[in-house]
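User: Reviewer 2 asked us to show a designed sequence for the structure in our supplementary figure. I'm pasting the structure tokens here. Could you produce the per-position amino acids so we can include them in the response letter?
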């Protein structure tokens, strides 16, 4: 009986802590600054997706070029569901690189035909 009371008490403490943490996280995401940041990030992602669709044909194999990990992640998200990324540039029909000027909120994708 004592064990059941201890387990129930510990569970209640964990549950209250989880609710508090969840509420605090949700409140922080609801701030105007956070919403503006998410909106700008989403707009840039949509712009880059549109660029990819205009640069390479659907289903093309693409190499995401050399660059930083952050750039590779941006490119990877931009080609998802449109082109097929490959880690081997010799297997790619196109090479995509990211430039930090112009285009979508200061970022632009360049495409070079490999085959």
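Assistant: Here is a per-position design you can include in the supplement:
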């Amino acid at each position: 009986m004592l064990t059941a009371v201890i387990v129930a008490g510990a569970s209640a403490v964990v549950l209250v802590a989880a609710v508090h943490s969840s509420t605090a996280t949700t409140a922080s995401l609801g701030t105007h600054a956070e919403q503006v940041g998410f909106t700008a990030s989403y707009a840039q992602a949509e712009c880059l997706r549109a660029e990819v669709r205009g640069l390479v044909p659907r289903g093309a194999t693409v190499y995401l070029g050399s660059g930083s990990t952050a750039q590779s992640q941006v490119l990877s998200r931009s080609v998802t569901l449109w082109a097929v990324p490959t880690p081997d540039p010799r297997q790619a029909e196109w090479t995509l690189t990211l430039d930090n000027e112009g285009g979508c909120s200061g970022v632009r994708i360049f495409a070079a035909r490999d085959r």
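For the response letter, you might also mention the following. The chain has one domain: 31-113. The chain has a mean pLDDT of 82.
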